[in-house]
Write a structure and sequence with these properties.
With 329 residues, this protein is of the alpha/beta class. The chain is 46% helix and 11% strand. It is built from 16 helices and seven strands.
């Protein structure tokens, strides 16, 4: 069965469109990811959802379909937990390797240095298994993959390579085409239509392991509401925040609000208010946004020659506290 019936419901414009149930959304996305729709249907789906916007129930169905087509990451975590991290420095209250934390990196750097890899390293040094996932390249941005490559840090193409990186106490970057090949294909539709599609939101909500913490970031306040509704429905463990140019890392210049959700419920005691008031000073940052410049500067932080920006340290500490609380729960 094609998806024409679904397009008829979601394609009536912003005011007239009807929302799909979770089951309908799951079926729709399953057909899209499995390549069972024509190019015309695929374009209609992407444009209709772009105009209508996704409900929490639709996102739940979409993400469930994507999770069913993700590579199984459980062996990587088991491999890493079988031996203590080689380079990590676990938090005092941590029993060893904790996590994982998933950092969806799909926007890249446009004006500012891409410091998602720095957050990944800050977490790894606190004893956390960290997976950054996203595209290898973006013709308009500097991707996290490029920074990882410039730093000589693990860009993994298999579950075994991911497990080895985690066992060594190192964060890893996994391309979307490895983590979820059908979703990676959906993301490329952007370059034909010129617009992002529901696949980009789904990619930012992936957590195929169903455990640990995921950072869910938004660029506009209205998205915080829809994403919060999804996290509640999915009973997810997440840090919800306004990202830096769409990346899941705190702006090094001013810490944003961190909303911690455990099992879908906001936990005020673990959340953090944003930094307010006039900035009296700015942290030291890379002198350019190029991948090699950013990676080189991150290296000076890892070596202790440059201080870790307070906002990113706060984000890492917040995630570690949430991970420990989720394990206790």
């Amino acid at each position: 069965m094609g998806i024409a019936a679904y397009i008829k419901e979601i394609g009536r414009g912003k005011e007239g469109a009807r929302a799909l149930s979770t089951a309908q959304a799951h079926d729709l996305m399953s057909q899209v990811l499995d390549g069972q729709v024509s190019d015309l249907e695929l374009g209609a789906f992407c444009l209709a959802m772009r105009i209508k916007g996704e409900t929490a129930e639709e996102l739940d169905g979409f993400v469930r379909a994507a999770h069913e087509r993700c590579v199984d990451l459980a062996p990587a975590l088991a491999q890493a937990q079988a031996q203590p991290p080689g380079q990590a420095q676990p938090a005092p209250s941590s029993p060893g390797l904790i996590g994982p934390v998933l950092l969806p990196s799909y926007n890249g750097s446009r004006k500012l240095p891409n410091l998602t890899p720095l957050l990944a390293w800050a977490l790894a040094q606190r004893g956390v298994a960290v997976l950054v996932h996203g595209p290898l390249r973006d013709p308009t941005r500097i991707t996290s993959a490029q920074v990882f490559e410039a730093g000589g840090w693990p860009v993994v193409h298999s579950v075994a390579e991911l497990g080895a990186a985690w066992a060594a106490g190192r964060p890893a970057f996994m391309p979307t085409e490895v983590l979820c090949p059908p979703l990676a294909r959906l993301l490329t539709v952007r370059w034909s239509l010129g617009l992002r599609n529901p696949g980009h939101t789904v990619a930012k909500l992936l957590n195929p392991l169903g455990r640990g913490m995921q950072v869910v970031n938004h660029t506009h306040p209205e998205y915080a509401v829809s994403l919060s509704n999804y996290l509640q429905l999915a009973r997810a463990n997440a840090l919800l925040m306004r990202g830096t140019e769409g990346e899941p890392v705190a702006d090094a210049r001013r810490q944003p609000r961190f909303e911690i959700c455990l099992h879908g419920q906001r936990v005020p005691a673990l959340s953090r208010e944003p930094e307010e008031g006039v900035l009296l000073s700015l942290p030291e940052l890379p002198e350019g946004r190029e991948a090699d410049v950013t990676a080189g500067w991150i290296g000076t932080v890892l070596e202790g020659r440059t201080p870790l920006p307070a906002a990113i340290a706060a984000q890492a500490d917040c995630l570690v506290a949430a991970l420990l609380a989720s394990d206790q729960g």
